Amino acid sequence: MYYLCIALRNRCNLSFSNSMGSRYFLPAFFSFPLSHSHFHRFPGVSICFGPLRFRAGYSICNCIFSPPNLRSSMNLTATILYSMVSLVVLIATVYFFFRVVSIPGKTIKSDTGWGSRIGLVLAMAGNAVGLGNFLRFPVQAINNGGGAFIIPYLVCFLLIGIPLLFVEWSMGRFGGTPYRNRPMGDHSVPFILQRVHAARWVKYIGVFGIFTNIAVAAYYCYIESWTMSYVFHSITGTFRGMSQEGVSSFFDVYVDLGQSTLGLPYEPVVFYILCLALNVYILSRGLERGVEKVAKIGMPLLILFAMLLAIQTLSLQPGEKGAVYAGTEGLRYLWTPDFSSIWKPSVWIAAAGQIFFTLAVGMGTIQCFSSYLKKDDDTALNAMSAGWMNEFVEIVLGSAIIIPMAVGYLGIDGMTDIVRNLGGYGLGFKTLPYLFQQWGPLLATFAGMMWFGLLFFAGVTSSLAMGTPVIGFLKDEFNIPFSRGAWIFGLITLIMGMPTVIFYKEGVFTEYDDWAGTYSLVIFAFAEIVLFAWIFGIDRAWEEITRGADIRVPVVYKYIIKFVTPVLLGIILFSNIPGMFQRVLHPLNGYVSFAQIYLLALFLFIVYWVHKAHLKRLGLN
Are residues 285 and 157 in the same domain? Predict the structure, then answer.
């Protein structure tokens, strides 16, 4: 039996001890052996979760989640807030993942199913962990009250994120259960929903579960291609000797089809096709040999790269490596709470939107992944493990890189100007390559490779998940093999994605992001939870959620899923309706109108094929 003892004093110390008395001490992000003489116990509380016991002791006046030499530059309130939230998230992540590891089991259902439970959880976490964890979350926090943003964010995670994870995991497993004429069950969102309720119209709600993944993948793979290109340029030293303006304009040159950074005609198109082809190739190898294998490699590397960059960034001191301020000044600024912002509805809408964006709920990918589980396989623990792992990456690691780095070199005013004008992508692609150069040629090369490498892994594990609902639909309904379905998905994504590449500066990219990456998610999430909790019935839904569960799901979530989450999703949905009409009635230009019509054509095309699949099933029966 292992005990996790946590002592908070001069820094946040984590130690694991076993029955032999050996202890391992983890200061912030890494671990090394520590002798008994160096370990001290402090008064505190003990929290027991099955085989794990968490002991927390603290001295508030000295509490800090960083080495002692970083302490002086951090505001006390921000320090305590970041420390406490990070500690809670870390404990939850370790606990749930420990439970997954301690209950091993094969989850293979067919030759296209999962090879291991850990592989499934890492693939689900990879689906959730994306570019937004590092580029979107810190900027959202700054724009919505700093450290105070974490309060509505965590409330939305508990009342929207976790309930939707429970619903989508269990709904997918239910849909994949074998039944008459379907010995392998259903693995496409339209007919997974049809299993929940027999009415013919229900399957057409599932169109969103295919439409969203194609439309998002169309522009998301373009961002991935940026990271692929920037890894190449970091390794070859392209940014060496460039000024800040030069690095910023480099991105503008890259996305301009009329120019090239390599002398390669249509450079962004070439990288986009290469990136999409890589995704399709991995998908063509199936879940176990493709998606799962990449998740097992990509997720550990992503976390490792993020930890190394976070340590290096938070260790910045004024006058060292060209830094003007300590890296922790950025962390302090990010986490200093403006509590007056908590009462603003826009802050809560932004927090809920970030939960949607970061957990990948409302897309249909989770249902598709979990549809390959067996009838009595756990979904509750798997959902919690994947969800909390995503929160660890976003809150603990995502907070500790991009903003602290920018503040360390540009100051708060310089950083906020970039955020205001360029957003997170401006910091990530137009600023950080220049700042890395201040660390010297060798370290800059490795830092650039790790930064854009972790963004690439974050992106590719998400985009791979987007392909599975489409492939599952083609395989289930039209008997198209998994490998061929992957190439069909790639072709459709290419056709849909080229306008985002060609007309990037005209606003097509942003229009895709708003309709597919925001509105569509909210519509589908609201529809699915009403369907599952009210039409399918909360008693049957709760039985499905808790069946085979390896953890005890708090019964309060039965009522949250039925009453609280639908109301909150309804508020979010109806608050977005004016914006939808505004975009349709008053488009910015003709390119934006084209993007809207193009997306509508995709949606109707999918409706047609779902209807064809329905008729085909009737013919078979």
Answer: yes
Domain that holds residue 367: 103-620
Tokens coding 318? 């004024």
Residues composing the chain: 621
Beta bridge partners of 58: 8
Q: Is residue 87 in some structural domain?
A: no
**Kind and range of the H or E element at 7?**
strand 3-8
Top-ranked range on mean pLDDT: pick from 1-15, 22-36, 111-125, 543-557: 543-557
Total domains, the chain = 2
State whether the Cα torsion 315-317-130-156 is positive or negative.
positive
- Ranges of H-type helices in 103-197: 117-128, 131-135, 137-143, 150-156, 162-175, 189-196
Which residue has tokens 């002692």?
68
Do residues 373 and 444 share a domain?
Answer: yes
Measuring CA to CA, how many Å separate 14 from each of 4, 6, 61, 229, 344? 7, 5, 19, 38, 37
**Distance from first CA to last CA of the chain, Å, rounded?**
55
CA dist 595 and 282 (Å) reads 29
Question: What strands, in cross-sheet order, belong to the sheet with 12-17?
Answer: 32-33, 23-27, 12-17, 3-8, 52-58, 44-49
Residue 71 CB burial class (10 angstroms; 0-12, 13-18, ≥19): middle
Best CA proximity match to 193, nearest among 539, 605, 530, 561: 530
Dist. CA 303–CA 546, nearest whole Å = 31
Which has the closest alpha carbon to 103: 542, 551, 546? 551
The total of other beta-carbon atoms located within 10 Å of residue 471's CB is 27
Write the CATH number for 292: 1.20.1740.10
- For 524-533, b/e burial (b = at least 16 CB within 10 A) is bbbbbbbbbb
* pLDDT tens profile 226-282: 999 999 999 999 999 999 999 999 999 999 999 999 988 999 999 999 999 999 999
110 and 55 belong to one structural domain: no
Flag whether pLDDT at 62 surpasses 70: no
Within a 10 A sphere around the Cβ of 262, how many other Cβ atoms? 14
Q: How far apart are CA 438 and CA 268, in angstroms?
A: 27
User: Which residue in 445, 431, 474, 419 sits closest to 284, CA to CA?
Assistant: 474
Could you report the per-residue pLDDT of 373-410, keeping only the tens digit for each? 988 999 999 999 999 999 999 999 999 999 999 999 99
8 A C-beta contact, residue 23 and residue 15: yes
Dihedral angle sign, alpha carbons of residues 246, 406, 354, 571: negative
Judge whether 92 lies within some domain: no
pLDDT value at residue 508: 96
Q: Return the structure tokens found at 616.
A: 């085909």
Q: Are residues 187 and 43 in the same domain?
A: no
Q: Is residue 484 part of a domain?
A: yes
Phi-psi region of 554 (alpha: psi -120 to 50; beta: other; left: phi over 0): beta
Output the six-digit token pair for 126. Answer: 């990879």
| Tally of CB atoms within 10 A around 306 | 27
Provide the whole-model pTM.
0.86
Claim to verify: residue 117 and residue 38 sit in the same structural domain: no
CA dist 485 and 492 (Å) reads 11
The answer to whether residue 69 is domain-embedded is no
Q: CB of 64 within 8 A of CB of 10? A: yes
How distant is the alpha carbon of residue 36 from its chain centre? 39
Residue-by-residue DSSP string for 333-345: HHH-B-GGGGG-H
